[in-house]
Amino acid sequence: MTVRIGTRASKLALTQTQQTADKLAAVGGFPVDLVHIRTEGDVKTGSLSQMGGTGVFVAALRDALLADTCDVAVHSLKDLPTGAALGLSIAATPKRVDVRDVLCARDGMTLADLPGGAKVGTGSPRRAAQLRAARPDIEVLDIRGNVDTRLGRVPGLPGNTTSEVVPGKSCDLDAVVLAAAGLERMGRLDTVSEFFETDVMLPAPGQGALAIECRTEDAPRQAGTTEGSNAVLAQALAALNDDDTRLAVAAERAVLARLEAGCAAPVGAFAFRKGSMLHLEAAVCSVDGTKTVREKKATDGLTEVGATLLGIEVAELLLAAGAAEIADLAAS
Fold first, then answer.
1. pTM of the full predicted structure?
2. Cα 91 to Cα 73: distance, rounded to the nearest angstrom
3. Which strands form 101-105's sheet, in the order they lie side by side?
4. For 6-33, what is the mean pLDDT?
5. Catalytic one of 33, 68, 71, 79
């Protein structure tokens, strides 16, 4: 049995999918093949938020699973829409890596070091809003492209192949903001000039985590049900799952779902387990960074249901504090 693993063809997607495939093969004892899937987000140009957010990277992979073109798909969990996909299940959430956002700036500068008017690039309204809140005097620009392309916009960063200033292409920005997780997986952490702690910039729900998705019939069977499978693939997927990560991202994604906010909305959330408690903090920002509401809460209900309820409770606190008025949220 060869397990076919669907992935986008970007360098980051291939890297994190290959790392996951290697672990799955080692646990399951079966060969794996990577199947390259081209998504709408890879084809279209323009702002991610205008295209409907990072969910545009997911639909083609899910279609490939349902069409039996692949058996498993590996997603950056922050890209997954919160709604259920009929016939598919998140079979495993491996142990999460660094959740933080990072600044990759010229001359090793931190956010505080950047001069007034400095140009900072990001494709995320959430990052843009929190950057503007921290430094209203800088210019935040919407950018697209893979990790290498974005890093190439900042002069002098390790690994860049040119020093030529080409507006919109190379060496034309003072800094970019990216996820630590992606840079870590690609071996590019040497480009980081500052790690943002969560009190400065809350990450996207699910950031730093991967979601391994498959057809529901192939997913690990849950206790007390007949849905799913006990086959070799299902057992291997179950072995890759990290319970604490699954609880944390369930809480974070419940915030997003209750707010009826898409992947590109200016919403940050971070949950973590400490001892017998699951802690969650979430924030909603206005796009211009002038207004932010932030709430936190904890629960001892260490189940997916308990984590989901925690997320809903924090979302209700945010809504009561005026979150829907300061951001474009469907919830009220």
1. 0.89
2. 10
3. 139-142, 119-122, 175-179, 101-105, 194-195
4. 94
5. 79
